[in-house]
Amino acid sequence: MITTVETRNIRGALLTLPVDDISQGLVLEDIDGLHPVKATIVSSSFANMDAEQYHSSRRTTRDVKLTLGLEPDYEINTVSDLRKGLYGYFMPKSPVNLKFTDSDGTVAHIDGYVESCEAPLWTEEPKMEVVVRCLDSDFVDMDETVVNGSTVSTVTNTPLVYDGSVETGFEFVMNVNRTLTAFSIYLTGSDGVDGFIDFAYNSLVAGDVLTISTIPGAKEVTLLHAGVESSILYAVSPQSNWLELKPGLNQLRVAATGAAIPFTINYTNKYGGL
């Protein structure tokens, strides 16, 4: 059950939408669009064969609809005052951030753009209906999760439990403390699917910081050396996978010969629905 809803506009102004408190003159009567969105499934059929063959799938955009009841204290303000104040947060085409707190303690947010904001003038029970189009349909944790580890020269895996409900990319950051020319990242997801990243470079040296991001829309490989950052995407083999954590238990191993080198895995829990 959603207990708190907050919205922040492009200017950074914060508005709390009361769920059961009318003292502000408005109350959040209904929310629609928090469930998992539909998926588009791509498949093909073949002559003289039953059924179809699966190719790929993707989840569509999300529409979050907020229904606000307007009940002003006429000694302080009017319905028109409330309506105009809300326009500052929900003017169509403006970017907006929605933050939700669930009764189980989950706090997640989502970015979107106001698609519509309707508030009929002549009605006995004044309301405002707002639709926010979210191009990325996933809700995201407010805080990043950081997992510390170090390279190994054995086949020992490190268990990594991912609490999100949909897959997520991550940022791998290695603080190099010795000369290193190659290493591999192995990941087995909770679905049993194996993936890897093979890295090879002329020479990483002590003091270098290597970052590999597998986050969709921000995939990159960068090296910070002597205060200068550069892209070294070519150091990752073409056969490598852009690894993602899957919901549940994942098994991670960063394999390199020689003494252990520390690294961190940084990621944010993502939820397909609240």
Report on the structure:
The protein starts with a strand and ends with a strand. The protein is elongated, with a radius of gyration of 24 Å. It has two domains: 2-137, Elongation Factor Tu (Ef-tu), domain 3 (Beta Barrel); 145-271, Sandwich (Jelly Rolls), CATH 2.60.120.860. It has one helix spanning 79-90, and strands spanning 2-9, 14-17, 26-32, 39-44, 53-59, 62-70, 95-102, 107-118, 127-134, 139-141, 145-150, 158-162, 171-175, 180-188, 194-204, 209-213, 220-225, 228-231, 248-255, 262-267, 270-271. The longest helix is centred in the N-terminal third of the chain and has 12 residues, at 79-90. The chain is mainly beta and 274 residues long. Strands 1, 2, 3, 6, 7, 8, 9, 10 and 21 form a nine-stranded antiparallel β-sheet that branches. The chain has a six-stranded antiparallel β-sheet with strand order 11-20-13-16-17-18, with no helix packed on it.
Strand residues, percent: over 45%
CATH topology assignment of the largest domain: Elongation Factor Tu (Ef-tu), domain 3
The CATH architecture of the largest domain can be given as Beta Barrel
Question: Which class of secondary structure composition applies to the elements?
Answer: mainly beta
Order of helices and strands: EEEEEEHEEEEEEEEEEEEEEE
Principal-axis shape equals: elongated
What's the average pLDDT? 94
The unreliable regions are: none
Q: Specify Rg, calculated over alpha carbons.
A: 24 Å
Number of strands: 21
Amount of helix? under 10%
The domain count comes to 2
